[in-house]
Design a protein that fits this description.
two-stranded antiparallel sheet, 2 strands
Length: about 300
């Protein structure tokens, strides 16, 4: 295959794949943030730490209990989601009617505490987590070689993201969730336990972050700092897509991952800042975000 714009096709498609993988993580994490903000009105800065906790739960299950990757995909979201529910019941529930800043400061403090505890216990260096045997190796696509695990991550992320969007936007359960944020007293009058619904919604958003952490563990080393490294980018994705917009978070996450990958090919020096440049441009043109609505 001839070069494309002077770039070898293997390099171009390889960076596109990496961008799509990063976009898959951006989409899932920003989806969890959008759910929590859109339905609970809380800016959850603990999301990066909960993503990191998911990866560490997977590592602990493997190294301490001998339970591999497939178990981790099931157990980690439940364990970390339960931790999130504990936070919601004991702390966040008192802040729902207050300014967003209070929730941001509280969750930021919790994130620093969690990150510090894991760093004291495990150090700052990354811990390896092996790819499951069923997903090792790769597939020759002719124009590039695609590692099987990376392909799996992209497919799973697409299924999880659009499945979650469908449940929230197209089902009766989702209509209850959206109604509970607008008029909780009315929804309560129909026999729906709104506090329990809010609690479980937060737990689901946190569990989604932990699930993403398990997916990321074999690609990036498991480290106490892995959440801090990605959360700022994910917040930028949420702002660009529109705070609280489920579909906006998904499409923007995957799209910006691809943009970041292409930037690494054509202008590598800007690859670490291109998302923030896009954020500034979007906010100047449409302050509510691409898919957001003015509040």
């Amino acid at each position: 295959m001839p070069d494309i714009f002077g770039i070898p096709p293997q390099a171009l498609f390889g960076q596109l794949l990496l961008g799509l993988i990063n976009g898959a993580f951006y989409a899932q994490l920003s989806l969890g943030l959008a759910i929590i903000f859109g339905l609970l009105n809380i800016i959850n800065f603990t999301h990066g730490a909960q993503y990191m906790m998911g990866a560490f739960v997977a590592w602990m299950l493997l190294n301490w209990l001998g339970l591999g990757y497939w178990w981790a995909l099931l157990v980690a979201p439940v364990v970390v989601g339960a931790f999130g529910i504990l936070i919601e019941r004991t702390m966040l529930r008192h802040l729902y009617k207050l300014d967003h800043l209070y929730g941001l400061l509280l969750t930021f403090g919790i994130a620093l505490i969690v990150q510090g505890l894991f760093r004291d216990q495990f150090g700052s260096t990354g811990l390896p987590y092996r790819i499951p045997a069923e997903l090792r190796g790769g597939t020759d696509l002719g124009f590039m070689f695609m590692p099987n695990y990376r392909g799996w991550v992209v497919v799973v992320s697409l299924v999880v993201c659009f499945g979650t969007w469908f449940v929230i936007e197209k089902t009766k359960l989702g209509s209850y969730l959206r109604a509970a944020t607008e008029n909780p007293a009315l929804v309560q009058s129909f026999g729906v336990n709104v506090p329990r619904m809010v609690m479980l919604t937060y737990g689901f958003g946190v569990g989604l972050a932990a699930f993403t952490g398990v997916l990321a563990a074999p690609i990036y080393q498991v480290s106490p700092l892995m959440g801090a490294d990605i959360i700022i980018v994910v917040f930028a994705v949420v702002v660009i897509g529109g705070m609280g917009s489920i579909l906006g978070s998904i499409l923007t996450g995957f799209g910006l991952g691809i943009v970041e990958g292409l930037t690494k090919v054509f202008y590598p020096e800007a690859s670490s800042t291109v998302i923030f440049v896009v954020m500034v441009i979007v906010l100047l043109i449409k302050p509510a975000g691409l898919f957001g609505r003015a509040r």
